[in-house]
Write a structure and sequence with these properties.
The complex is a heterodimer of chains A (338) and B (343). Chain A has 338 residues and is of the alpha/beta class. Chain A contains ten helices and 14 strands. In chain A, helix 9 links the parallel strand 9 and strand 10. The radius of gyration of chain A is 24 Å and the shape is elongated. Chain A starts with a helix and ends in a 10-residue tail after the last strand. Chain B is mainly α and 343 residues long. In chain B, the strands form two sheets. A two-stranded antiparallel sheet of chain B has the order 1-4. A two-stranded antiparallel sheet of chain B has the order 2-3. Chain B contains 15 helices and four strands. In chain B, helix 8 packs across helix 12. Classes of the chains: A alpha/beta (338), B mainly alpha (343).
C-alpha cells in the first residue's frame, strides 16, 4: 500500500515538475515569425498514406524549397476522425506560423482551426474546405463548371461532336456529381447540338456495379460512341466492360479519376482520357499561398495572386482557383504516379 | 499465496524496482526527458494540457477496461458504443430539443443500458465476452451508421457545452476533472473494496470464486455496465472536444484502451493487474504520440513505437522471472560443452 502511495507521489512530482518549470521560457520563443526568422508551414492531408496527397506533397516540397520555408507534413494514419484535430492542436502548441489543411470532417476540424486562428496562426484549406469562418482562403482545385466543361469538351473532341453517349455517376443524389452533371448538360446544349445523352446510370461508387451498368448500356444502345464516368471507380469499371465486349476503340471511355487506376486501360487504348487536376500543382499552390498569407503578401479581398511558376491565379471571393482540370492521356500518363 | 509474495516483494527494494509499474514509470520519465530535450515546446504547460485533453477519452475507456480484463474478460464494443452514444446525444439535443445536460443524462442511461446488454449476454447466456462484445462492436457501430445514414453530423453545439471539451476549469482542462473523478473511483473500486478482490478472484478462476460463495455473475455484470456507462461519458467529452458528433466517433478506441491496460501490466488472462498501471500505460502512449510531433518525427512511427514499447515493457518485467531458468540453462550448457573443449 505504501508502495502505491509512493508511486503516486512520484508521478505527481514528475508531472508537476515537468509541467511547470519550462513554461516561463516559452513566451520568449513564441509568437509569429519576424522578418528574419524562417517561416514554418504545416500541411495536413486527409490521410497520410494516400497517393493523391503524397503527390500533393511533392509540389508542396518544391514550393517550400523555392520560398525558403520549413514545411511540416503530417496527417492521420488511422480512421480516427479526432486525429486531424489533435495534430492541429499539437501544431498550435508547437507554434507554427501557418496551417493548410485538407478537411476530412468539416465541422470537427473547424473547431481546431478556429482555435488556431484565434492564436494568430494563418489558416488556409485546400482540396476540401472547412467552415468558411475557420479559415481565410480555400485553395479550390476545380470548380464544378471547370469539371463539367472539360469532360464535355473532351467527349466532343473524341466523338467529333456527334453521336450517342451515356454517363455513369455514383448516385443520382450525390450533390457534387449532380452539380457536375448540370454543367455537362449545359455545355452539351450550348456547344454540341449533334450529340445525344442517352442515359445516366448510378453505380453506387462501386467498380463492379459500374462494369455491369456499362455492359447493359452497351447492349441497350448499340450505336453508343462514348461512355463518360464521373465517379472514380466507374472509369476502370466502364473500361473493363468495353474491353470485354470487344468494343475497344469503337466505344470510347473517358472519366474523372486517378491516373494510376486507369493507366492499364489508357495504354491499351480502351480509355482515351482521364480528367483530374495536377495534384503536384495543388500542393505547390497551397504552400505558396499559405506562405504569402503568413507574410502578409496575400490579403482577403485580392482578386489575383502570382503563384511562382504557376503564374497568375484567379481568386473568387475567398477561393483561390487552381484553374481548369488536366487531361491525362496516352502521351502523358506515365509522368504521373498517384 | 499471491498476497504473501506481494508483501515480501514490498519489503524488498529489488522487488519494487523490478515491478512492472516501476519499469513503466521509468520509461515514461525517459520519454519525457528525451522529448523535452528535442522539442522546445514539449515541456510547456500548454502541451501538457494538450496531452491530457487528447487522452481523456481513451484513458476513460482504459480505466473501465481494467476491471473487465482483471475478471478475465474483454470488451471490444466500447469504441463503437462511444460512437453510438455520441450521435444519440446529438440527436437528443438537436432533434428532440433537449438541453445538453438533459441529453447528457439520457446518454449516460443509454450507455449503461448498452453495457447491460453485454452483461446480460455474458452472464445470463454464459457466452464468451470476446464473442458477445465482437457482436455488439458491430451492432453499436451499425446502429450509429443506420441512424445517421453515415452522413448526418451533429454540430453547432452551444459554447456552454463545448466548454467541457475545449476550455479550462480551475486552471486545468475541464474534462480532466471528470477523468480524475472516474480514475479515483475505479482505483478505489479495484484496490480498496471487496469488489476489486472478487474481480481478481474471478480472473484466476471463476469456478473457484463461485465455490467460494462469490456472486460471480453479478460482479461480472457490474464491470460491463460500468464500461458502458463510462463509454457514454467519454462520448460526451469527445463530442464537446471536437464540436461534432458523427457515426465514426471512437473508431479503434477499444484497441488503444486494451493496449494501455496490457502495457500497464494487467494480465490479459485476468487475475493480476492494477489501475495505476493502466494510468501509466495511457500516459506512456499519450506522451509518445505527442512527443513525436514535437520531435518532428513522422506520425506513423507512433504505432510502431507503441508496439515496441508494449513488447519491451512486458519483456523487461518478465525478464527477472526468467533469470533462474536462464542461469540453469547456462549452467547446463557449460557442463555439456566442457568435454568438447578438452578434446
Amino acid at each position: 500500500m505504501k508502495k502505491t502511495i509512493r508511486l503516486f507521489l512520484a508521478i505527481a512530482v514528475v508531472v508537476s515538475g515537468c509541467g511547470k518549470s519550462p513554461s516561463p521560457s516559452s513566451p520568449s520563443d513564441g509568437g509569429s515569425a519576424g522578418a528574419g526568422k524562417k517561416l514554418t508551414i504545416a500541411l495536413m492531408p486527409k490521410s497520410k498514406g494516400n497517393a493523391y496527397f503524397i503527390s500533393c506533397k511533392q509540389g508542396a516540397d518544391e514550393a517550400a524549397k523555392a520560398l525558403g520555408v520549413e514545411l511540416l507534413f503530417d496527417g492521420p494514419t488511422d480512421p480516427d476522425p479526432a486525429k486531424q484535430n489533435e495534430i492541429i492542436e499539437n501544431w498550435i502548441t508547437l507554434g507554427v506560423d501557418a496551417i493548410a489543411a485538407a478537411c476530412e470532417n468539416k465541422e470537427g476540424i473547424s473547431t481546431a482551426l478556429r482555435k488556431a486562428k484565434q492564436k494568430g496562426i494563418k489558416v488556409l484549406t485546400y482540396d476540401s474546405d472547412a467552415a468558411p469562418d475557420a479559415r481565410e482562403f480555400f485553395v479550390n482545385q476545380a470548380t464544378p463548371e471547370g469539371i463539367g466543361n472539360t469532360l464535355m469538351d473532351e467527349a466532343g473532341r473524341l466523338t467529333g461532336g456527334e453521336g450517342e453517349f451515356a454517363v455513369i455517376t455514383a448516385s443520382l443524389t450525390a450533390a457534387n456529381m449532380n452539380e457536375w452533371r448540370k454543367h455537362i448538360e449545359a455545355r452539351l446544349a450550348s456547344k454540341y447540338p449533334k450529340m445525344k445523352l442517352m442515359a445516366t446510370k448510378p453505380c453506387d461508387d462501386l467498380k463492379d456495379k459500374a462494369q455491369s451498368e456499362a455492359t447493359a448500356l452497351l447492349s441497350a444502345y448499340p450505336n453508343l460512341k462514348l461512355i463518360m464516368a464521373i465517379c472514380s471507380p466507374a472509369v476502370p469499371g466502364a473500361a473493363e466492360a468495353v474491353k470485354q465486349a470487344g468494343k475497344t476503340g469503337t466505344v470510347k471511355v473517358i472519366g474523372l479519376g486517378l491516373p494510376n487506376e486507369n493507366k492499364k486501360y489508357v495504354k491499351e487504348g480502351v480509355t482515351q482520357s482521364v480528367i483530374l487536376w495536377k495534384t503536384v500543382d495543388l500542393g505547390y499552390l497551397t504552400v505558396h499561398a499559405t506562405a504569402a498569407l503568413a507574410r502578409g503578401e496575400l490579403k482577403s479581398g485580392a482578386t489575383t495572386y502570382a503563384a511562382g511558376r504557376l503564374g497568375k491565379m484567379e481568386i473568387k471571393g475567398d477561393s483561390i482557383l487552381l484553374g481548369s482540370p488536366f487531361v491525362f492521356n496516352r502521351e502523358n500518363i506515365d509522368q504521373f504516379d498517384f | 499465496m499471491k498476497a504473501n509474495s506481494e508483501l515480501e516483494s514490498l519489503r524488498n527494494w529489488k522487488g519494487i524496482l523490478l515491478r512492472h509499474e516501476t519499469v513503466l514509470l521509468m520509461v515514461l520519465v525517459l520519454e519525457w526527458f528525451y522529448f523535452n530535450s528535442v522539442g522546445r515546446r514539449f515541456g510547456t504547460l500548454d502541451n501538457t494540457y494538450d496531452i491530457v485533453r487528447h487522452s481523456v477519452e481513451i484513458g476513460l475507456l482504459a480505466l473501465v477496461m481494467t476491471p473487465i480484463i482483471l475478471t478475465g474478460g474483454i470488451d471490444l464494443s466500447v469504441g463503437s458504443l462511444l460512437g453510438l452514444c455520441a450521435i444519440l446525444f446529438g440527436k437528443l439535443w438537436r432533434d428532440a430539443g433537449m438541453p445538453p445536460w438533459a441529453a447528457g443524462i439520457c446518454t449516460l442511461g443509454i450507455g449503461a443500458a448498452a453495457g447491460g446488454l453485454n452483461a446480460l449476454l455474458i452472464t445470463w447466456l454464459r457466452l464468451p465476452p470476446l464473442i458477445v462484445t465482437l457482436g455488439t462492436y458491430s451492432l453499436f457501430r451499425g446502429l450509429a451508421e443506420a441512424i445517421t445514414h453515415g452522413v448526418d453530423t451533429f454540430t453547432n453545439f452551444p459554447a456552454s457545452f463545448l466548454f467541457l471539451g475545449q476550455e479550462r476549469w480551475l486552471g486545468i482542462p475541464a474534462q480532466a476533472s471528470v477523468f480524475l473523478i472516474v480514475a479515483v473511483a475505479v482505483w478505489l473500486l479495484v484496490h480498496r473494496t471487496t469488489f476489486g478482490r472478487s474481480f481478481r478472484a474471478i480472473g484466476y478462476s471463476s469456478e473457484g470464486a463461485r465455490y467460494a460463495g462469490m456472486p460471480v455473475e453479478r460482479r461480472m455484470a457490474l464491470v460491463y455496465v460500468l464500461a458502458g456507462l463510462v463509454a457514454s461519458v467519454a462520448a460526451i467529452i469527445y463530442t464537446a472536444r471536437l464540436g461534432q458528433a458523427k457515426a465514426d466517433a471512437g473508431t479503434g478506441y477499444e484497441l488503444f484502451a486494451i493496449t494501455a491496460v496490457v502495457l500497464g501490466g494487467t494480465s490479459i488472462f485476468g487475475g493480476a493487474g492494477s489501475v495505476h498501471g493502466t494510468l501509466l500505460g495511457v500516459a506512456a502512449i499519450a506522451v509518445l504520440n505527442n512527443g513525436l510531433v514535437h520531435a518532428r518525427q513522422p506520425r506513423e512511427a507512433a504505432g510502431m513505437l507503441t508496439g515496441a514499447l508494449l513488447l519491451l515493457a512486458l519483456s523487461a518485467s518478465a525478464a527477472p522471472k526468467l533469470l533462474p531458468a536462464l542461469r540453469a540453462w547456462r549452467h547446463s550448457c557449460a557442463t555439456k560443452s566442457e568435454p568438447a573443449k578438452v578434446t
